[in-house]
Design a protein that fits this description.
By secondary structure, this protein is α+β, with helices and mostly antiparallel strands. The chain is built from nine helices and nine strands. This is Nucleic-acid-binding protein from mobile element jockey.
Length: about 300
Amino acid sequence: MDVKDVTGIQRVNANKIAVIFKQYNTANNFINNTTFLTKYNMKAFIPAAQIEKTGIIRFVPANISNKELYTRLSSIYEIVAIRRFSKKVGQERIPLQTVSITFLSNVLPNNVQYDLFSYRVFEYIPPLLQCYRCFKFNHSAKVCNGKQRCSICGGEHLYKECDKPTEISCINCSGPHLAISRLCPIKTKKIIEKKNNISYASVAFTKQVTTNEKDFPPLPSPKSQPVNSNVSVNKSISISANKSVQDVNKVKIVHSKDLKSQIISDNDVLMALVQTLVELANKDDSTPTNLKTIKDALLKNLT
């Protein structure tokens, strides 16, 4: 049986070949063609990168579990996976305040909602892959056909067998550092290229999706709308103001300690304060953060 509408074929690695079709329906037909695939002992699938997009959010309290985030986070696109980053300290894994979110979409939403809090979504740049066999980049030792290299001197042996531990030479740039060092200029260049390529691919693919609706139909409807969107914090202003006026009329003087107690006891005001801190932490423009910008952001969240 002939495979129709193929526009390109390229090798991905030793075990995978990418087949590019002219239209999405012919690609789907190929995946469902079990007779052809069984005959040639092959498996076909659509790469997750074509239908999913991963972003990150920051400053998420570490005591919130992945399960709770998955249940309570909402977005204009369906959320299919949640993963909190962690770091190893001694023998223990410490959860961080950065969380990755995978969406069933080709593009990222601007933000996601957690109760009253809105978190900005940033693009996720995965770590640069480096082979621990040849120490080149963008592939793993599992599929490497190169010779074993030493990360210390660059010789053709394991680092444990190195007889020149003081003659440090990077296999990639010949510099006086280990092949796995972050100081390697070649590694730095590869990381920058990776970031630029991902950003360019995102823009290019977005244009393709938006201009070829026949070939790329719209994704399923959103998982849910932002929760608690009808909750208003306007009452926090009137409540605080009324309390302050009453106190002034009674005792003529409002002590700062009493005012602080009133603010702390008002949940709506506290929620607005936290929301303001999250927004200021997530902003990436060059606008300086000062008392005026903080006040403006707080007033916006209180109204």
